[in-house]
Design goal:
Helix content is 46%, strand content 12%. By secondary structure, the chain is an alpha/beta fold. The protein has one domain (3-173): Rossmann fold, CATH 3.40.50. Helix 3 packs parallel to helix 4.
Length: 178
Amino acid sequence: MDCWPTEPGTTLGAFLSHKLGWPLHEGDDFHPVENVEKMSRGEPLTDQDRLPWLLKLHDIIQREMSSGRNAIVVCSALRRLYRQVLLLGSKALTSSEPGSVATCSLPGVWFLFLYGTYDMIHTRMVARRGHFMQPDLLRSQFEVLEPPAPEENAILLDIRRSTDDICREIQEHLRQLS
């Protein structure tokens, strides 16, 4: 069982879903209406805004794992806490030490961390049409961004590379895990 919560990578998520035959769960589809409205107005989300959304995605990951299916979940898990909520649900919020969570990974769950410069990502956001998240919100995302630590089962992927190259690298990781 492998679930792959990816950083903003809808294109890569769809490509992988097609190539691997795994179901794709697009995180944007699970945002509460209030979050979509807030982002549409150019207002950044708070941790409290994100929590119900992250818990929904946690439930999807758990459902897929329980059924033994491989799946891809596309979302912007910007902070370590967000990734922990994806893994542990509300248990991630009851850590004994503020800012730390004992479990950094779960077997079979990997994070694909797509990274690039602010300018590169902003240019791509400006070019896309019809998405509720305003490009002006990118700065706030960079401000809260906590790249994954080595113990978080993350694969770091440079978005300057082609989707084909990134997908090949992911497939190589899958082969090594088998």
